[in-house]
Amino acid sequence: MEVQVAPLRAWDDFFPGSDRFARPDFKDISKWNNRVVNNLLYYQTNYLMVAAAVVSIVGFLSPLNMLIGGTVVVLVFLGFVWVSHNKDILRRLKKQYPTTFVVVIMLSSYFLISYLGDVMVFMFGITLPLLLMFVHASLRLRNIKNKLENKMEGIGLKKTPMGIILDALEQQEDGINKLADYISKVKE
Which sequence ranges are marked TM in the entry (predicted)? Predict the structure, then answer.
C-alpha cells in the first residue's frame, strides 16, 4: 500500500482553547497510551511542522552538530527496532513498556551524542520536539474526526509515516483486530 501524508490539521483544531485539553488518567495507562497514539496519528503533520521549526532553528545555529545528532538518533532507533524484532524478550518488553523503549533509545542517543559532540543540540534539537509532541498528544482530547481518521488508518485504508513508526514500535494493534472491533461497534 502506498504511503500517504496526513493532511495538515487546522491550527485552531490543533491548539484550541483549554476546553479541549485534559490531564490523562495516569491510573489507566492503556487509555493514556491509546490517546497518545491516536493523537500522534491524527496530528502527525502538525507535529512535523512544529518539529521542523525547532530543528531548523537549532540546525541554523549548529548545523554540523544537528546533522550528527539526527543521524545518531535515527541509527540508534533503527538498531533498537531491528534487535527487538529479532529477540522475543525485547519484542515483549517493547510492546508492554513503549515509553521505556523510547527512553532507552533517547538515553543511548544522548550518551553517543555526548561522546561525539554537543549535548545541547540533542536537548533542544531532538528532545524538545519529541517532548512537545508527547505532551500535546497526552493532553489533547480526541474528537469524532480524529477517531474516524484513526479507524481508517487502523483498518488499513490509509498508511502514513507516523503509522509506520508506530508499527515499528508495535504500538498499533493488528489491522484485523481493529477491523473486528470497528465492525462490532457499527453493528451496535
Answer: 40-61, 67-85, 97-113, 119-139
- The single-letter code of the amino acid at 153 is E
Fill in the amino acid letter for 142.
R
Q: How far apart are CA 29 and CA 35, in angstroms?
A: 10
Q: What is the pTM of this model?
A: 0.69
CA distance 177 to 91: 19
Question: Hey, what amino acid is at 22?
Answer: A
Q: What is the rounded radius of gyration, in angstroms, for the C-alpha atoms of the chain?
A: 17
- DSSP letter assigned to residue 157: S
Query: Within 10 A of 181 (CB to CB), how many other CB atoms are there?
Result: 14
pLDDT, tens digit, for every residue of 102-112? 778 888 888 88
Low-confidence ranges of the chain (pLDDT < 70): 1, 17-19, 117, 143-158, 169-188
